[in-house]
Design brief:
Pathway: Amine and polyamine biosynthesis; carnitine biosynthesis. The protein has about 110 residues and is α+β, with helices and mostly antiparallel strands. About 25% of the residues lie in helices and about 5% in strands. It is extended.
Length: about 110
Amino acid sequence: MIPVLNVYPWNNEVYMIRYNNYDRAVINTVPHDVVQRWYVAHRGLTTELRKPENKLWVKLKPGKVLFIDNWRVLHGRESFTGLRQLCGCYLTRDDVLNTARSLGLQA
């Protein structure tokens, strides 16, 4: 079972979250009581994530770019009337952080 929240062992700071309420495999590799506790915790996390104060809506205009750190930010889209074109790509974490450091940016 892959953890939903990944934390650094030396300071318990969350460095990665893995959450997708629509894409989850059957949990059949751990005891039933652990599965029950997992679903209770998952329901609590889902409730927190769906609270309006925990959401940020960004309406992009044509030509604007949005970079998202998939390890630290949950993101999604809503239905849309009209035309839109999304283009995605993946950058390696080390490359981005090293480039930021070499440019004198805080990484």
